[in-house]
Amino acid sequence: MQTDKGIVLASALIEHLRRQLVILPAINTIERASAEAITCANRRIYEALSEPLSDRHRHNLDDLLKRSDIGKTTWLAWLRQSPAKPNSRHMLERLKVWQALDLPTGIERLVHQNRLLKIAREGGQMTPADLAKFEPQRRYATLVALAIEGMATVTDEIIDLHDRILGKLFNAAKNKHQQQFQASGKAINAKVRLYGHIGQALIDAKQSGSDPFAAIEAVMSWDAFAESVTEAQKLAQPEDFDFLHRIGESYATLRRYAPEFLDVLKLRAAPAAKNALDAIEVLRGMNTNNARKVPADAPTDFIKPRWQKLVMTDTGIDRRYYELRALSELKNALRSGDIWVQGSRQFKDFEDYLVPPEKFASLKQSSELPLGVATDCDQYLHDRLTLLETQLATVNRMAQANDLPDAIITESGLKITPLDATVPDAAQALIDQMAMVLPHVKITELLLEVDEWTGFTRHFTHLKAGDLAKDKKLLLTTILADAINLGLTKMAESCPGTTYAKLAWLQAWHIRDETYSTALAELVNAQFRHPFAEHWGDGTTSSSDGQNFRTGSKAESTGHINPKYGSSQGNRATSLLRWTRISGNGQDFSEPHHAAQSPALLRQARRPTARNPQQAARPAGHRHDHALRHPVRL
């Protein structure tokens, strides 16, 4: 029920028969048994997803395959299409349609997540007309999978858009605050110099015992002095020199989508964020009742001192800044995982990542927990603490003897020895000579030759049937379009005899994240086995780097702000920063896609390499020569 890969099922069957001391049957018998198991599992999955549906659910799902009221396409085709302008209104419209299906609660937990995702992927590559031809159980199961994945995708996109909009508003307020201060710099400097002269005149008057008012009028007239004080008050910034008060100027931007945004999200909170969720409920009630004044008993514990003077005024709670603070806190809580969203993929409950309690208890009772560590928590913690104390003692001993590799610990802290260039200058001449000797070949021909050595293209199997691509050259052309970030349209224009439709079909059915991962593993292992690979080490070191990819200018209107390059066109505002980690043997360590999953970075950075699984990769500095080597590294 977890996979429909024949090789995995056949391997599991063979392992089971060996444990039971049963003589293995012929290979064709094992293949038939595996095929029958896949067929039975598919039927059970279709039944599990369609059985909880009522007649109303089935009617709503059938309506997805009918022509919509807002266009010439079916509702399902409309939901699949990316909106012309990816703004909050268009995304909320799609989410409301998905939510209107009102699927039974918990239906997504009835089957394994891998199978649910695979059914959704298969259905995503089919037209509504093709789906309508399925027998009822399979049709409804496929539509349920599409609805679950579609609703999760749109929900995540809306939350991500809200995050970007808030970030853009904060950046705009901060930049405006800085720009105004810079624009007032000349006037501020003139006032500082003027009051410096007046101050000095007052000091001299006190020392000589003369009239201080006359001293001021000796510098400037009294009317001019009074006018300068008024000008200085206008130039003065808040005492804490904060820019938060300027965020209120963008309140109307949030009000365009915030009421519907809060209304469609099904939020749940951990105790740490309960007060923030209560504030969101207050805002929902105010939006429903068209109330303008925040209730006096509204929760305020989530309001930090920085916001206090803006939110808590003499006349009561300021509506604008209360809502801005609540939405900002919601963004932070979603990032930290203290608030989760029902139906989301990236912002789901932490418990959903874990094995259900009843299944965990059953596995533990039968001593079948698939863990590589002791299942006794006290014993495990004792062993790890003992190991930690031993390692700390070793580090202390080495630090005192100044034997730490590439580092020293002093009273001021830890100092890392900077990396030196290991390539001698004389090597450049040899590099130039080798470049002249190498023949000029087409990149696809080189990829075909690498495939003859390694067979990495066999991992790009068909999503549904598991077949290999019939045209290897066309497959490699599609992979190359990804590798050099050219896109399918421009690649089709650059290659005679190739059409966009052919490349798009291959990309949809044969190229996925998991196929890239297994193909890359094939290349890495082949490189490991080559004697020349020893010159790059044993694969226990890693390098990390972030590459900035310029994207279309349309991204700026959706709230994309590059944290390093700023927000102007000249500073690559509309760009994508991809962070990668590569082991010494070329193995890629992919990063998680959301801030709430950032602890996975540490686990992935310590993940063992293929050649030495007992030794984790350690960082070895930055490297900048792997920007576009994701699909194939040569």
From TrEMBL:
Residue ranges constituting the Tn3 transposase DDE domain according to the UniProt record: 445-573
Bias type Polar residues, positions: 539-572
GO biological process: DNA transposition
Transmembrane stretches, start-end: none
Compositionally skewed regions (Basic residues) per UniProt: 620-634
Keywords from the UniProt entry: DNA recombination, DNA-binding, Transposition
Family statement drawn from the similarity comment of this UniProt entry: Belongs to the transposase 7 family.
Name of the protein described by the UniProt record: Tn3 transposase DDE domain-containing protein
Organism: Azotobacter beijerinckii
